[in-house]
Amino acid sequence: MVEVVKKRRQGKIIEIIRKYEVGTQEELAEKLKEEGFAVTQATVSRDIREMKLSKMPAEKGGQKYVLWEQGSEMENKYVHVLREAYATAEAAQNILVVRTVSGMAMAVAAALDALKFPEIVGCIAGDDTIFVAVHTPKDAQTLGEKIRLTVEQGEAREALQRNE
């Protein structure tokens, strides 16, 4: 019974974030309550984490939650997120510390997860910093270089598309 309610609630979350530019957990909880779901902020937070929702810049300014789905078009979007939000990366033993534009760490972490770099064990994102756990210090160096190259290739690809 609990799983059925959770699936219905998470389905409603997808509907809500596709229909509205929802930028906070509180806004999402309010929309769910309007739809008849009795939720707490902790429940919404767990759903966001389980569903791997990320934030992207909203058309009207600020940020909004989005659900990323697999596919090559989405891969281009992940690269775009990296290109727009990535600032630097620095290896610290078997952790790569990635700095982003303020407020975009969660989106970049989701992009890194979705791009499935084999070096990545997992990511923890704050506001503008991501700790990326990797297997070895060498993997941290390798991953930092791969991310840098991905950003540069994404910039080159977008420049070519603009000139076509």
Could you explain the architecture of this structure?
It is a single chain. The protein has 164 residues and is α+β, with helices and mostly antiparallel strands. Helix content is 55%, strand content 20%. It contains 6 helices and 6 strands, in the order αααββαββαββα. A 4-stranded antiparallel β-sheet has the order 3-4-6-5. Strands 1-2 form a two-stranded antiparallel ribbon. Helix 2 packs across helix 3, helix 4 packs antiparallel against helix 5 and helix 4 crosses helix 6 (137-163). The longest helix is centred in the C-terminal third of the chain and has 27 residues, at 137-163.
Secondary structure elements and their pairing?
Layout: H1 2-19, H2 25-34, H3 41-51, E1 54-57, E2 63-66, H4 72-85, E3 86-92, E4 95-100, H5 105-114, E5 120-125, E6 129-134, H6 137-163
Antiparallel strand pairs: 1-2, 3-4, 4-6, 5-6
Which value, in Å, is the CA radius of gyration?
17 Å
Net shape: elongated
What profile does the largest beta sheet have? 4 strands, antiparallel
User: From the helix content, strand content and strand pairing, which structural class follows?
Assistant: alpha+beta
Give a count of the beta strands, DSSP E runs of length 2 or more.
Answer: 6
Number of helices: 6
- Give, in spatial order, the strands making up the sheet with the most strands: 3-4-6-5
Helices and strands, in order, run as HHHEEHEEHEEH
- Give the low-confidence spans: none
Taken as a percent bin, the fraction of beta residues is 15-25%
| Distance between the first and last residues' Cα | 54 Å
The overall average pLDDT, rounded, is 86
Helix content: 40-55%
